[in-house]
Structures are given as C-alpha cells and as structure tokens.
Design goal:
Radius of gyration: 22 Å
Helix content: 55-70%
Largest sheet: 3 strands, antiparallel
Number of helices: 12
Number of strands: 8
Shape: elongated
Strand content: 5-15%
Length: 265
C-alpha cells in the first residue's frame, strides 16, 4: 500500500494521530519538492498574471502572511517548500512576486522582517524589525519567563567566547537554582527546553564534540539569536550585574560593537 493510501486509512480510524502522521509525511516529502522548485520563465509569470485577478493575488498574499505567522508562533523555521506546497499552490509561477509583497506587508504592518537563514534549503525566520526596539533583547519580553532562561544561557555562551561545554551551562544554571536534572516549577523539563525547543527555534546550536568518551556536547548561538539579540545590550546588562564597565571585557566589547555596526548597515 502506498504511503498516501496508508495515511488516508489512518485518518479514518484516528483523526488526531492521523493529523500528526500527515504533518510528518509533509515534512518528509517537502524536501524532495523543494529540490524540484524551478524559477518560472517570464512567459509563465505573465500568463499567471493574466489568469489571476488583483483581488485573487491580494487574497493569496494575505494567506501566505497568515500561514507564516501561524508557523512562527512556535518560533520554528519556515520553509519555502511548505509555503509553495500548502499555500501558493497554483500561483507558483508568481511565487517571487507574492513573497515580495509578503515581505513588504510584514515590514510595514507588523514591524517584522522575513529573513532567509539557509539559502540552500530556503528556510526563513521572522525577526523583530521595530525601530523603537533595536537594542532590546528578544529574551526580555515581559510575561515570557522561559526566554529569560534563554537570555541567561546566551549570556554564558557569549561571555565565555562563543562556545561552551554543556556541563558548564548546567552548572551555572544550578547556581541559579535551575537544575537541569529536576523538573522546574516554571520551566518544566529544563534540559529538554534548552537542548530541544531552543535549538529547534534556532536560538541555540547543540553540537556533539568529536572524539569524546563519554560523549560531550557544546552550545553556540543559533542563527535566530544572532539576528534578534543585540550583543551590546546583552554585554551592558552583564556589566551592570557585575558593576563594571562593559569595556572591561575587551574581546566581548569588540565583538558586540562590530555586530552593532554591521546591523546598522
């Protein structure tokens, strides 16, 4: 029996489980679909413009915006394959034109920017673009305590040179009475939150260290953190906690200043 038929049969028996299986099947097949994604010719684009009214295109732009916002609720990466297959569909020849309008909508209406973090796999994330908050680390959002934990982990990594063994992170959190080996009242499973959710959201990278026995892992900043978290502001907060001048940490200050200059270009 084909995968599609098996999926259909399971949907009739167990809707909830079928929905999960359907999503997994989509993820597996989308990789292949994106490989076959080819740029349309000018003739195909022109024909698509003639086939769809401005109102229909407007509606499709709104659908893509809504799709991306829903995907972003879990801070997961957004793939071109998903957008093309599940939303763009028959408008595929107009993909580039629709996405330009989608990006403009995010910037002008929501103060967000759609950023491609992997040009090879065509994976995107949404980042905050509000000019009134360029220095505010995303992890300090009120009412979001788990991002306070993330901010702490990012601070440790940054202050230790950009790469730290996981044991150091767990030991540091334990001093703050956040034990990765115990269930926390607010964060729940701390280790899963840090090594799974934050990694999946691209805030952290959790990488195995080669040739270690027993196996060891290390943490680094993820691409979303690099895009969203202002290193200079982070350093200022750390300096304030230790009642020192930010420039006391020469390497970190140099890196934070360079990152700020680059973001302003």
């Amino acid at each position: 029996m084909s995968q599609r038929k098996r999926l259909s049969a399971s949907q009739n028996k167990a809707p909830n489980r079928a929905a999960v299986q359907h999503q997994q099947a989509e993820v597996e097949s989308d990789d292949e679909e994106d490989v076959s994604f080819t740029q349309p010719t000018s003739t195909q684009v022109q024909r698509a413009r003639e086939n769809f009214t401005p109102v229909q295109v407007d509606r499709k732009v709104a659908e893509v915006v809504q799709f991306i916002l829903i995907k972003d609720q879990k801070k997961g990466p957004i793939r071109r394959a998903d957008i093309a297959k599940h939303v763009i569909k028959e408008y595929r020849a107009m993909y580039a034109e629709i996405m330009k309008r989608v990006c403009r909508t995010f910037e002008q209406v929501f103060g967000l920017k759609l950023v491609e973090i992997d040009p090879k796999s065509h994976v995107y994330i949404l980042i905050n673009k509000l000019e009134s908050m360029p220095e505010e680390p995303v992890c300090l959002i009120p009412g979001n305590p788990k991002y306070g934990l993330l901010f702490t982990v990012l601070s440790v990594i940054f202050m230790k040179g950009g790469v730290v063994k996981e044991a150091l992170v767990w030991n540091f959190l334990k001093k703050l009475r956040v034990d990765a080996g115990e269930k926390h009242d607010i964060f729940g499973d701390v280790k899963k939150l840090v090594t799974d959710e934050f990694v999946r959201q691209k805030y952290l990278e959790y990488v195995r260290i080669p040739h270690t026995e027993p196996v060891e892992f290390e943490f680094r900043w993820g691409v979303r953190a690099e895009k969203e978290v202002a290193k200079k502001k982070l350093l200022e907060i750390v300096a304030e906690l230790f009642e020192q001048d930010p420039q006391s940490w020469t390497q970190q200050y140099r890196e934070a200043t360079a990152a700020e200059s680059q973001s302003q270009r």
